[in-house]
Design a protein that fits this description.
With about 120 residues, this protein is mainly alpha-helical. The protein contains 5 helices and 2 strands; from the N terminus they run αααββαα. A two-stranded antiparallel sheet has the order 1-2. A hairpin with a 3-residue loop joins strand 1 and strand 2. The two termini are about 20 Å apart.
């Protein structure tokens, strides 16, 4: 995982990473996540940053912990991750996207052919 310099906190980038893996089906219910220390070493971040991400994911009901065993993907992870990412997209990313569309004199329907092409490529992958 590579971190970006968009100003988004690193722990939220870790949250987005886990949500993406859940939504793509790479992390399934009851899959065990790496321990806080293991994830911190893998990502080369402070363990406190990973702990903050895991606590946030727990609050969103995307993961749960089993005391003494570790963190696991929850049964409702996919729907919870979808709800969280939709809200984040709508509040954080969509306004900037709409601004660019407006500046370029484009309408959302102008993007439909490109979006359909993208979906076709992604579904085949």
């Amino acid at each position: 995982m590579q971190f970006n310099n968009t100003g988004q906190a690193i722990y939220l980038q870790i949250v987005d990473y886990v949500c993406e893996r859940v939504l793509l089906g790479e992390f399934r219910p009851e899959d065990k996540l790496p321990s806080v220390r293991e994830m911190a070493v893998q990502l080369e971040v402070n363990p406190n940053t990973v702990m903050r991400a895991y606590e946030f994911l727990k609050q969103q009901q995307i993961i749960h912990d089993k005391r003494g065993i570790g963190y696991f993907i929850s049964e409702e992870a996919k729907s919870a991750a979808l709800a969280y990412r939709k809200q984040e997209f709508t509040e954080s990313e969509l306004p900037a996207f709409f601004r660019v569309l407006f500046m370029l004199g484009m309408e959302p329907q102008d993007l439909l052919p490109a979006f359909e092409s993208f979906k076709n490529k992604y579904v085949r992958a």
